[in-house]
Structure formats: C-alpha cells, structure tokens
Design brief:
Helix content: 40-55%
Largest sheet: 6 strands, antiparallel
Oligomer: single chain
CATH topology of the largest domain: Jelly Rolls
Distance between the termini: 43 Å
Number of strands: 11
Structural class: alpha+beta
Number of domains: 2
CATH class of the largest domain: Mainly Beta
Strand content: 15-25%
C-alpha cells in the first residue's frame, strides 16, 4: 500500500497551519510538515510508522516530517447516515516556517532535540499534555497573531519536557519518502494495514516482487525475525492495547487482533507474553490502580 502525500492549505497570512478537523481523518499518508495532533472526539486504531495502538479522546502525539500515519475511528464515530463524528485539533509547521535558523537559536535547543526525536513519533502525556491541551483549546477562539504566540508557548513547554514516549521503531528514523521504492517497506505497510485479517505469503511476494525463498530470507535479514513472528508480535501488541482499554471481552479482542479462534489467541499470547490475556489484563489493572 503506497503512502500518500497530503498537504493542508496554508493561507499567505499564516506562518503555520492551525486546523480544527471535523472531516473524515485522512487515510495512511505523510507530509513534510511536523504535526501536533490533539484528539477531541474519537476512538479507534492509530498507525504511526510501524507502531499500532488504540487511541481515545485527549490523545496527543507529535510527528516528525514525512512520518506515515493514520487515525482510524471505530464505527461508533459514524452516524447511521454515515456522517463522521470525530474531531481533532492539528498544528502543522515546517522547520523554516518561523524563519531560517529559528530552531537553531540557543533558546530553542530543547525543541530542536524534540524535532529530531519526532522522526519516530512521540506520544505526549502528563502535565505537559494538560498544559498544551489548554493552549490548543484557546487557539480555537484566537486570531492569527494570538495563535503565533500561543504556538511559541507550546514550543517552550515541549522543549523543556521529557513527558513523551517514542512510538515507531528505529527502522522509521529516516524520514519515509513516497519515491522510496524499497519493496520491504511496501510489505511492512501492507502488514500494518491488514494485520487484522488473514495475510497470505503470496500476497506479500506479489507486493515485493520476490520469490518464496528470497522473500523469507530478505525479511528475516532485515527485521531479525521471521515474517510469521513479526505478524504475531504486531497482533499481540495490538491485543495488549485492547486489553488495557477494557472496551472488549477477551474473545472479541482475539478476533479484533487477527486471530480466528480463542484457543489460538490464548496460545500465541502466552508464548509471547508468558501469561494468558486474562492474567495480563488483571496484572496491569492492579498496577494501574496502585
């Protein structure tokens, strides 16, 4: 699946993009702008590089330039007539949006470091998220001048905080380009977009244009594990997110994560996590409450 480059409109009167998004979120795409996203209304699956996770309201992430991403809302965020009910606030900017060398200023040392870190995508949490959420909500009612100084306030908070978690793997450290014709990147994109259903090896061979032997050898050399193990890791990782979300029962979680029956799900979960899904959920809920 090819990643699309999608660019938002920026008025000549603005140095950066501020968008209150209420339309259907864009499918798997990227762009040269750095992006800060705050989810106001929505719940579903978030794809960032090769990271897959459940998201919900108040979710906040900061994305680097050309890092592929997608927010896919659950069916409950579509009305019976098909209208989209999700909502988010987006800030986008280029490295030179505020003038050449702006982020190289000594006062922006912390923010410059975060721009580098954001190539993997960062989930913002804690007091940092709370402060930025308040500013982004206020920006909805501000003019362009007020928003400019508001975004500088956000940079100050982000640049002086360590309350962020890296999302994508180091394999996505190098910005992802549409023109990059690496067949294995196409394979990984396909796996991450289709892990919830059966994936046949011949589909991946067709995408990569490789023979059976070449595909398995190349995959293991590139990702240091077999294709089967990689797919299981993705499915189990997603199942862990669902278990902590507490919106589905264990049987539903197995199905949503790409397993065709409960016993198969339980067996593979125990192999990878060393416990059953039920035990995993109980342990983490107790840990969260303590």
């Amino acid at each position: 699946m090819k990643v699309r480059e999608v660019r938002l409109f920026k008025s000549p009167e603005q140095s950066f993009i501020f968008l209150h998004e209420t339309d259907l979120f864009t499918p798997w795409h990227h762009h040269p702008e750095y992006e800060l996203v705050m989810m106001k209304k929505g719940k579903g699956i978030r794809f960032i590089g090769d990271h897959i996770e459940r998201f919900k309201e108040d979710d906040m992430v900061f994305l680097g330039s050309y890092l592929p991403h997608e927010w896919r809302c659950d069916k409950s965020f579509f009305s019976p007539s098909g209208d989209f009910l999700g909502e988010c606030i987006v800030i986008q900017f280029l490295k030179d949006s505020f003038g050449n060398g702006f982020f190289d200023l000594p006062e922006n040392k912390g923010m410059l470091q975060l721009l580098s870190t954001a190539t993997q995508g960062c989930k913002i949490y804690g007091e940092t998220k709370r402060k930025i959420m308040l500013i982004m909500e206020q920006m909805l009612h501000q003019d362009n001048v007020e928003r400019l100084y508001a975004v500088f306030s956000i940079f100050k908070i982000l640049g002086s905080s360590d309350e962020h978690k890296l999302l994508s793997s180091p394999a996505f450290h190098i910005p992802f380009k549409t023109e990059d014709d690496d067949p294995m990147k196409k394979v990984i994109q396909y796996i991450h977009q289709n892990f919830q259903k059966e994936i046949k090896v011949n589909e991946l061979q067709e995408i990569s244009n490789m023979s059976n032997t070449t595909f398995f050898t190349s995959f293991k050399k590139r990702y240091r594990m077999t294709f089967k193990k990689y797919l299981l890791q993705i499915r189990i990782g997603y199942a862990c997110q669902l278990l902590l979300d507490d919106s589905f029962n264990i049987s539903q979680i197995g199905y949503e994560s790409g397993f065709n029956n409960l016993s198969n799900f339980n067996r593979h979960f125990r192999e990878i996590k060393g416990c059953t899904p039920k035990e995993y959920k109980k342990h983490h809920l107790i840990k969260r409450a303590s």
